[in-house]
Amino acid sequence: MIEVSQTAMAVAGAVIALLVVVSTGTLFAGLRARAQAQAAVDASHRLQALVAGSPAQAMVVRADGRIETSRRLADWLGLDNLPRDMSELMADEGGLPEDQAKQLSAEVTAAQKAAKPFHMSVRAKDSERALIVVGVRAPEAVRAPGGVVLWFLDATESQNEISRLQRETNRLRSAFDALQALIEAAPIPMWYRGGDLRLLMVNTAYVRAVEGKDAEDVVSRGLELVEGAGLGGPLANAAIARDTQEPQAAAMPATIGGARRMLRLHDIPLPTGGVAGFAIDIEDLEQAKGGIKRANEAQRAMLDRLSAGVAQFAPDRGLVFTNQPFRRMFAMKNEWLADRPEFDRVIERMRETNRLPDVRDFPAWKAERREWFTSPEAVEETWAMIGGTHLRVVAQPLPEGGLLLIFEDQTQQFELQREHGEMQQVRTATLDSLAEAVAVFAKGRLQLWNRKFRTVWDFEEEFLDGHPQIPTLTRDIAPRLARPDSAKLIGDLVRFAASDRQQRGGSIVMKDGRHFEIAAVPLPDGNALFTMLDTSDRHRIETALRDRNEALEAADRVKTAFVANMSYELRTPLTSIKGFAEMLHGGYTGKLSESGTEYVESILMSVERLGALVDDVLDLTQNEDAPMERASVDLELVANAGAEAIVPLARAKQIDLAVEVQGSAGLVTGDMRRLRQVVEHLLRHAIGGTPEKGRVLLHVDGSEKRARIVVSDDGPGMSAQAQARAFDRFAHSTTSRSGERALGLGLPLAKQFVEAHGGTIGLISEEGEGTMVIVELPRK
């Protein structure tokens, strides 16, 4: 037995222990390496699964153009086989289009040479899949020196979403542009404020309202549309809208274009935290409201002055207005009406005061009147009140709701209608009792007639009851007239009276010889009154008078001729008497005694007066149309000559004869002898009517167109009867104003001569005040 030393044993143990330790370490290392390898395999499988399910697939393009890719990417590209180089990315079926393949090849080449990354979009033939290619230089881990890694990402859903978003963006941009254009073109100021209520955007109307340069200038200067941005101003309104997230509106005054306007500001909160706003000019609306208010006040004031009762109910059927006649008509006090009683209460109050018709079913009657509020049109009815009062009731629904009631007292009108009916009966009886034939036409038809009208024309009652038209009536009248065509006159007279409102008349003759005066008088409402007066008796009297007048004129002509002839016959003996008297006065038969001389002088004076009278009678009986001399006559000479001829007559009565000839007397065209006779006759008439020691004035003047001769005296004047007959020819001999008997031919002769010259003569006299005769002669 080998003995081992303790030292050897210790060494051996140490070695064994070391071997155990090393084996254990190696075992642990192997186990750890195995675990790491398994972890690497698991990680590889996991990465492969991730790559296989990744939305991006890689393609490695080596420096020599060879390609390494996956089956999935080949499917994306529509390739049946895995491509080996770049040229195989294009195929007859599937693959990339030629232009995209060439572009991709160029991009890969650039990346290989310059390590330039690129990004492009491709789409396989006949495929809707959109791919994004990202090319980068291959990292060293890929172990493809000089190669490029192409990452293909499936962006189909993203592209669709992007397209949708682009379309939505375009739509929103178009809508925004349209909205911006609309806001810009809006005629009302519009604006947008940020969360701090500062202006960020305004439109052109806003710029124009605040008189800014442009929108940028207004925003930068913060020009507010309404003055006062403090409490109660536009910013306060916007702040309330922002804080409460509810639209706000307020009416505020503003100065626009130098004029004070009332604006209604609207502030609308936006989800962005800002506030949009716009302003509407309500100045015209406010004025219209004021005008409507004033019109309502004026209307109510007018209604209060009407005689008809008026009551107005609001949409809630409360009484809001009554006028004085209504309150008086229905005995309602102001205190009770002040509570705005409802319609039903007002009706019941009318019933309590016996101001309603007597009805059996009052609730049903009241319900029917309550429907007036919803009636599509006005309702009108008549209430027969207790006591004989009649009310006309008009219920007018109002456009804004409510009801307007008008109560008109027609009691007097009913009485007038009754009286009118009685008057109609009286009128008919009166027309029938008239001696004239009367008919009334309206609208071209016979409406009324009396018994005389029917009997004159011998019409049947049935014919007249048919109210015939004027042409039909005149057609039946024509055969009854002596001249049938004169029937048209009747129709013309009626039409003139009805349409032209002119009164005209005429006459007709019946076949039986009767004469009628006809007339048409316009009546109200375009009617015409036709009357016929039987003038047969008058016509017979006129015929008799006409015959008598002709006989008298013939007798007058015979008398005038006789007087003229007698005047000529009287001249011969007067001439002989005058001649023998002058011989006796001249002493041819011896000297006469003093009394004989006086007798001869009296004979000469009487012959002179009788000769003048014969001359006057001859002048008066001569034809008035006999030719007269026409020459320029100086009225001053004529007046003086006429006055000189009358001087002896004036001296014999100690009458003061004064002559006044104004410088305006001038010339007239006429017969000097006749005009001188006019002056003499007027002076003889004045001297003959003036007592002794009286005064007679001859005054002559004129104007540019006429000359005037005035003879006045201060005698006793003339009576009205004497004045009326002063110019009558061959009037009965009267006592002159001097008391002498005379034929009075002076004034008639003067009148005849003056009128022959186209002039006028007039006499003015009052008893006890004298007489004045005025003659006016035209210059030509």
TrEMBL record:
Catalytic activity: ATP + protein L-histidine = ADP + protein N-phospho-L-histidine
Histidine kinase domain sequence ranges: 565-780
Protein name (record): histidine kinase
Keywords: Coiled coil, Kinase, Phosphoprotein, Transferase
SUPFAM superfamilies tied to this protein: ATPase domain of HSP90 chaperone/DNA topoisomerase II/histidine kinase, Homodimeric domain of signal transducing histidine kinase, PYP-like sensor domain (PAS domain)
Any one GO molecular function term: histidine phosphotransfer kinase activity
Coiled coil as UniProt keyword: yes
Gene Ontology CC terms: plasma membrane
Family matches, as CDD domains: HATPase (cd00075), HisKA (cd00082)
Coiled coil: 155-182
Gene3D superfamilies on file: 1.10.287.130, Histidine kinase-like ATPase, C-terminal domain, PAS domain
Pfam families to which the protein is assigned, alphabetical: HATPase_c, HisKA, PAS_7
Keyword Signal: no
EC number: 2.7.13.3
